[in-house]
Amino acid sequence: MSYVRTFLPWIVFAVVPSAQWQWGALAALVAAVAVTVQQRREGAGFDALIIETGSAAFFAALAGIAFADPHSAAHAYSAALSSAVLALVAAVSLLIRRPFTLGIAKRTTPREVWGLRPFIRANTVITGVWTATFALTAGALALLAHAGQGHSTAATAVQAAGFALPMLFTSRYTASLRAATTAG
After folding, report:
1. Are the C-beta atoms of residues 169 and 121 closer than 8 Å to each other?
2. Which one-letter DSSP state was computed for residue 109?
C-alpha cells in the first residue's frame, strides 16, 4: 500500500487523457502535495518522502509548462520525462546514501533494525532496482515518443510495467529476506 500512495501522483497523471495533460499535471501536483501533507501529519520524516517531494517539484514545473504552452514539445515526451525524473530522484537518493525505499520500509519495520547493515543493504538493492527500472522505462518511453507513439497503448503498457516489475521484485525480495532470517 505504501508504494501505491507514494506513486499516486504518477498514477493520477497517467490516467488523465493525454489531450488534457495540463490538467493531469495539475491533478498530479495536488495529489503529490496532499500525499506529502498527509504523510507528514502521520509523522513521516522527509527521508520517507523523497519521491513525494520530488514528485511535487516535477509536477509543479510540468503544470507550469503545460499551462503556459499546451502545445509544448514537452507534451509528447511527458511520460518519458516523468520516468526520467523518478530515475534521477531515486539515483540521487542512492548517491546521498538515503535510498528512497528506506523511509518506506521504516514504516513497517521495527526501529531496532533500521540501522543494521542488512536492512540498509536490502533497501539499497531495492532502490537500485527501482532506479534501473525507471531509467529503462524512460528510455523506452522516449523511443516511443520519438516514433510518435508516446501516448499509445504500448506506452501505457511500458509505464505500467515500469511500476509493476519493481513492485513485484520488492515484494519477492523482501519475502525471501524474511524467510532467510526466519530460517537462520
Report:
1. no
2. S
Residue 55 contacts residue 28 (beta carbons within 8 Å)? yes
Q: How far apart are CA 166 and CA 180, in angstroms?
A: 21
Number of domains in the chain: 1
Distance CA 164, CA 134 (A): 11
Distances (CA, A) of 146 to 20, 52, 84: 20, 28, 15
Q: Give 57-79 as a DSSP string.
A: HHHHHHHHHHHH-TT-GGGTTHH
Structural domain of 168: 2-183
pTM (predicted TM-score): 0.88
Tally Cβ neighbours within 10 Å of residue 44: 19
Q: Could you read off the pLDDT of 75-107 as tens digits, one per residue?
A: 999 989 999 999 999 999 999 999 999 988 888
